[in-house]
Amino acid sequence: MRETAVTPVQVTGTVLTTRRVDAYHALTVVAPGIAERFRPGHVVSVAVGGPHTSMPTRRVFSVHDVKPDYGGTVELVFAVRGRGTSWLAERKARDSLDLVGPLGRPYPVPRDPCACVLVGGEYGSASLFALADTLQQRGCRVDFVLGAASADRVFGALRARRMGETTTLTTEDGSLGLRGRVTDALPAVIADARADVVYACGPMAMLRGVTAVAVEFDIPVQVSVEESMACGYGVCMTCVLPVIGDDGVTRMVRSCVEGPVFRGERVRFEDIGTIPFDALGAPGGRAQEGGAHTRNVS
Amino acid sequence: MLTPEMSVDMRTYLAHVELANPITTAAGCAASGDELSQFIDLARLGAVVTRSITMAPRAGRPTPRMAETPSGMLNAVGLQGPGVDVFLESELPRLVERGARAVVSIAGGSVAEYTALARRLADAPGVAAIEVNLSCPNVEDLGRVFARDPAASAEVVASVRATMRYDVPVVAKLAPDVADIVAVARACVDGGADALAMINTPLGMSIDVDTMRPSLAAGTGGLSGPAIRPLAVRCLWQVHAALPGVPIVGMGGVLTGRDALELILAGACVVSVGTALFHDPYACLRILRELEELLKERGFERLADAVGLAHRPPGAGPRQRIDLEESSL
Ligand SMILES: Cc1cc2nc3c(=O)[nH]c(=O)nc-3n(C[C@H](O)[C@H](O)[C@H](O)COP(=O)(O)OP(=O)(O)OC[C@H]3O[C@@H](n4cnc5c(N)ncnc54)[C@H](O)[C@@H]3O)c2cc1C
Ligand SMILES: Cc1cc2nc3c(=O)[nH]c(=O)nc-3n(C[C@H](O)[C@H](O)[C@H](O)COP(=O)(O)O)c2cc1C
Ligand code: FES
């Protein structure tokens, strides 16, 4: 389950198509350098607001699909949240878009065929289809569990039904599939598929729940996390979360470089938003002895 | 006059250390250097200014650490870094290997800690200069920030200066949100600073009106990006006017060559690029190219001739006359 890092590139891509998919927007961008290096789980970071933007930080999105057309295209699927995604939603065919990618640690894929359950929450499912493709090419069985608050926010249900051995849908309001959350449906899917591994992408609370289920079944789980990011390529140090390393030591690691895909049981979900006292370099921690009680106030 | 094919002499001096060009990364905005070297050749920069190195490893502040604001951002990263041991073992040698000139930024909580850092760096090969980040709370003064206290700043600078090898310049990095930046600048120079750097991020805050809580876990954070450029220009202007012989590293919201030129005209001889690196991994080299172009267009043969030029008395005339209409006011 090892993946080697690829070198990202910056591409001024041309928007090829835009479309609405239920609650989401989809943009296909010609970005050859990125498409050819892409592996499932990779993300791209996008500059928003045009040449004289008042938005200096970049926005990060999963890559939904890559296609060989025009030398290589990438497709992003996104929800409008704030000013940057509103701007993106206004892009039209032939507009140009500044992308950097592919970024981050992709999903590791098993060497031998096995049974995989792919769990997606909201637009998180967008990153799972390229993964499903790769897994199926390797002879793996793929089952999907997709969920969201309501039917229009479940992304990719049709495609999942086409690709998956089984597909289970959940909505919190019951407007599609089972009423409830993906974690309510997951144990039965894991049991029926005799799953060997779980992959998940979605909101942090969902990833925490999915990890707990996988741990219960004692099977590995790979989660793609979503932390607030400003660059996507490792220079701003804002996207950190506490992750336990191979040596057992918790570090505040950058989710854009070391992640976004992590082994679920290594992520200290309950401590996100804090610096755990036993993390390397935590204030007052042992590593801090020697008097480095400084903090940057500016 | 320059003919179009002639190039501008972009060399500059940080005290007595010659840099091939004036563009550097800003402290804390380029992680270890490895990340940017995926995009650019670090050897082509005037220098790489490292993150502020501390004695011990630091986990930094809790998340959220960042909030975008109009033409800027707030950050409370809290000097996350590996500590001086790992820095000397791996980060600095990698910078040197890549042919980068390394300006090492240091941060401490007491004069003793800054001094201890200087001692560790004194014999390290490849340290082109030391930048002293004075925007740190002084644990011996109830957490009052050094940069807000001329005497405390001078004490840190004097101690680092006395510890570093004579041929490694010591640069004092100042904060803009102080009562009198000239007083702090003067105190640092009197304390032995060979050069000054400004501005560090002024303290700001934003509140999320949906959650009705501060956007940053730390509450307050440092404001950076184009939003603070006028503040940087004002600080550079005042300090260069008061201390014209002191080299200044200017920074604050530089996104383009024009922005860099503005800081140079105010008095900077080196320009650091911070937040722009989050927007464009090629920012430093692009800004350098744009700056050279602008200088050429204005008929400059040497970058050095533009440093502080906006201070010339009215009527002295720019190098190349720009005819402005008489103001109607
Ligand atoms: C690894 C990863 C993959 C993602 N994939 C997708 C995807 O496929 N589709 C999708 O709709 N969204 C995705 N997101 C979330 C997306 O990045 C945010 O919705 C977007 O940045 C919000 O920008 P805005 O300008 O609308 O919001 P604003 O709130 O104005 O953004 C302000 C700043 O905060 C950052 N920010 C705010 N919210 C988030 C967030 N949730 N995650 C990261 N940065 C944030 C922005 O990058 C920006 O710097 C992903 C995030 C990560 C980290
Ligand atoms: C995320 C971030 C981290 C920073 N870390 C440091 C640091 O470690 N030491 C320091 O002296 N300044 C630090 N700074 C301040 C910058 O070096 C610079 O002074 C400031 O951001 C203004 O320049 P800019 O507008 O180009 O970013 C940091 C700034 C940012 C945005
Ligand atoms: S987003 Fe900038 S370091 Fe991860």
**Overall geometry of chain B:** globular
* Beta-strand residue fraction of chain B: 15-25%
Low-confidence stretches of chain A: 286-298
- Residue ranges of chain B: pLDDT <50 for 5 or more in a row? 320-329
Query: Percent of residues of chain A in beta strands?
Result: 25-35%
- Secondary-structure element string of chain A: EEHEEEEHEEHEHEEHEHEEEE
Q: Helix and strand succession of chain B? A: EEEHEEEHEHEEEHEHEEEEEHEHEHH
Superfamily (CATH H level) name of chain B: Aldolase class I
Percent of residues of chain B in helical segments?
A: 25-40%
Bound ligands, named by name, code or SMILES? flavin-adenine dinucleotide, flavin mononucleotide, FE2/S2 (inorganic) cluster
Condensed summary:
The complex is a heterodimer of chains A (298) and B (329). Chain A is of the alpha/beta class and 298 residues long.
Question: How would you explain this protein's 3D organization?
Answer:
The complex is a heterodimer of chains A (298) and B (329). Chain A has 298 residues and is of the alpha/beta class. Helix content of chain A is 19%, strand content 30%. Chain A has helices spanning 32-37, 83-89, 128-137, 157-163, 182-193, 204-217; strands at residues 9-21, 24-30, 43-46, 59-62, 65-67, 73-78, 96-103, 115-121, 141-148, 167-171, 178-179, 197-201, 221-224, 240-244, 250-254, 261-263. Chain A has a 7-stranded antiparallel β-sheet with strand order 4-3-7-1-2-6-5. In chain A, strands 11-10-9-8-12-13-16 form a 7-stranded mixed β-sheet. Chain A has a two-stranded antiparallel ribbon with strand order 14-15. The longest helix of chain A is centred in the C-terminal third of the chain and has 14 residues, at 204-217. Chain A is globular, with a radius of gyration of 19 Å. The model of chain A is unreliable at 286-298 (pLDDT under 50). Chain B has one domain: Alpha-Beta Barrel (TIM Barrel), CATH 3.20.20.70. Chain B has helices spanning 34-37, 84-97, 111-122, 150-163, 181-190, 229-242, 257-266, 276-279, 283-297; strands at 12-14, 17-19, 23-25, 48-53, 66-69, 72-75, 102-106, 127-133, 137-138, 144-145, 170-173, 195-198, 203-205, 207-208, 213-214, 220-224, 248-250, 270-273. In chain B, strand 17 (248-250), helix 7 and strand 18 form a beta-alpha-beta unit. The longest helix of chain B is centred in the C-terminal third of the chain and has 15 residues, at 283-297. In chain B, the strands form 5 sheets. Chain B has an 8-stranded parallel β-sheet. Chain B has a 4-stranded antiparallel β-sheet with strand order 5-6-16-13, with no helix packed on it. Chain B has a two-stranded antiparallel sheet with strand order 1-2. Chain B has 9 helices and 18 strands. Chain B is α/β, with parallel strands linked by helices and 329 residues long. Chains A and B meet through loops of A and helix 1, strand 6 and helix 8 of B. The structure holds flavin-adenine dinucleotide, flavin mononucleotide (FMN) and FE2/S2 (inorganic) cluster. Residues 43, 57, 59-62, 77-79, 81-85, 123, 126, 226-230, 260 of chain A line the site of flavin-adenine dinucleotide. Residues 229-232, 234-239, 254, 256 of chain A line the site of FE2/S2 (inorganic) cluster.
